Amino acid sequence: MAKKKLKAASELTWKDLEIGNIVKEAGSASARRTGDWRTQRPILDKKKCIKCALCWLNCPDVAIKPPDKEGYYVADLDYCKGCGICAEICPVDAITMVEEEEK
Amino acid sequence: MSKRVGLEASHAAAEAARMADIDVTAAYPITPQTHIPERLAEMVANGELEAAYIPVESEHSALSACLGSAAVGARTFTATAGQGLELMHEVVYVASSMRYPIVMVVANRALSAPLSVWGDHSDAMAVRDTGWIQVFCQNNQEAFDLTVWAFRVGEDPKVLFPVMVHFDGFSLSHVTEPVILPEQEEVDRFLPKFRYPFALNPDHPMTHGAFGPPDIYSETKVAQEIALRKSKAVILQGWQEFGDIFGRYYEPVESYKTDGARLLVLTMGSFSETAKAAVDIKKSSGESVGLINLRLWRPFPFKELRQAVKGAETLVVFDRCISFGGPGGPVCSEVRSALYGEKKRPAVVSFVGGMGGRDMSVEDFEYVIDRGREVAEKGSPELFETVGIRGEVTGIRG
């Protein structure tokens, strides 16, 4: 889905809200960087990766992108919450969780 | 032709739900509301009402099921009382905040402990801040009329709020009175089909119930508050249209023989009729008294109340509930607040009585009038007065 430009929640007035705070468009989370509160990020070691797709299947937030041109499954850091399930599930320990650091 | 039949308020409410052609009801039986889901179950089983009757394991589930059916645009009805309303408490907030126009009848009941299945207003007061439209019925005709009206108002696209229709447990729920039932055609004319603009539909996905972090939650609450207050216009319009079709006109604040009255008694629910009898007796012996029946509880009818009591010297507010440790009965607190800013306002006296099914007789209301006048003139160290309590009551101090 194409990423739309949405106003940040902090820019909305009470008059901008739909009745019952309904979000009328599906998939609107794609327009927001929902993973910005992550404390750890997954790092993929492509030398170890066997492209088995287990991380992709098990990510609870659909935050691992479809295979790239070379067939690797890489996390989309705009949405990844850093839960570490991919690292845990990886049968060859190709994913390591590392601390996010303040920039 | 409309017909006049003997009905208890519970069956009048069930009849109203049937004539409103509800799509879904999910309710859990609890005294004194039991006859409502019982009658609806019978109607669905007999084919008198084409609706889904969802048996649930608790009141929390009952209202949760109602959220789901309202979300897909089904006309939804439920009923509860006392402990049942308490058990569904968190869902009560969800229904109003998500703006689902569910209609819920509450056969008002006292709250445990001690265990009591009998009537008072403690359950209603515990949900007064939940954001529902709330009305109180005085008799069984109002139980029918206000239930039909509740669908019309709640489902209006300018409103979209759930509506609670209150009537007193046992003194109305289980008492048979003559009720005029209209023709189906009249109800259909008053009540258009429910067209919920945001019905969940797999072909047009949308999100109901997204979470609200600190940077947006406050805005959602202010929007909700303003919308609830704006619903007043449709509430009044709904009553006007109801009167035009059915011939019975309702007002948020009903004034009974208040013209020139120096002392007014304010009541809610079925006791208003008892208090009217007391007012009649007092008037016949030359006393200057009248009665205010508060029908609309939320949104609170500030303007109408101020107008109704502006000529009075004394306003005695009768509550069927204690606000423990607070300034007086909960209705009285609201009434005092509503009048505080007025330059000319009556002295307000708070009375509490009729709790847990304790009857209030005409003589009791005559006492309320006499004692209320005395307190207004001489003052009292107590924050509120009681009626019908054995033993001298002192120690209700600030």
What's the short version?
With 103 residues, chain A is mostly loops. Chain A has two helices and two strands.
What does this structure look like?
The complex is a heterodimer of chains A (103) and B (398). Chain A has 103 residues and is largely without helices or strands. Chain A has a single domain (9-99), classed as 2-Layer Sandwich (Alpha-Beta Plaits). Chain A has 2 helices and 2 strands. Chain A has a two-stranded antiparallel ribbon with strand order 1-2. The two termini of chain A are 29 Å apart. The mean pLDDT of chain A is 91. Chain B has 2 domains: 3-246, Thiamin diphosphate (ThDP)-binding fold, Pyr/PP domains (Rossmann fold, 3-Layer(aba) Sandwich); 253-386, Rossmann fold, CATH 3.40.50.920. Chain B is 40% helix and 18% strand. Chain B is built from 13 helices and 15 strands. Chain B has helices at residues 9-19, 35-46, 59-71, 82-87, 89-97, 122-126, 140-154, 184-190, 217-246, 271-284, 302-309, 330-340, 362-378; strands at residues 3-8, 24-27, 52-55, 76-80, 103-108, 133-136, 163-168, 176-181, 253-256, 263-267, 289-294, 296-298, 314-319, 347-352, 385-386. In chain B, the strands form 3 sheets. Chain B has a 7-stranded mixed β-sheet with strand order 3-2-4-5-7-6-12, with helices on both faces. In chain B, strands 9-11-10-13-14-15 form a 6-stranded mixed β-sheet, with helices on both faces. In chain B, helix 7 links the parallel strand 6 (133-136) and strand 7 (163-168). Chain B starts with a strand and ends in a 12-residue tail after the last strand. The chains are: A little secondary structure (103), B alpha/beta (398). At the A-B interface, loops of A face helix 9 of B.
| Architecture per CATH nomenclature, i.e. the level-2 architecture of chain A | 2-Layer Sandwich
Shape of chain A: elongated
Name of the CATH homologous superfamily of the largest domain in chain B? Thiamin diphosphate (ThDP)-binding fold, Pyr/PP domains
Pairing-aware structural class of the strands and helices of chain B? alpha/beta
Q: From the alpha-carbon coordinates, what is the Rg of chain B to the nearest angstrom? A: 21 Å
Query: What level of helicity do the residues of chain A show?
Result: under 10%
Could you say what the CATH topology of chain A is called?
Alpha-Beta Plaits
Architecture (CATH level 2) name of the largest domain in chain B: 3-Layer(aba) Sandwich
Give the topology string of chain A: H per helix, E per strand.
EHHE
- Termini separation of chain B (Å)? 57 Å
- How many domain modules of chain A? 1
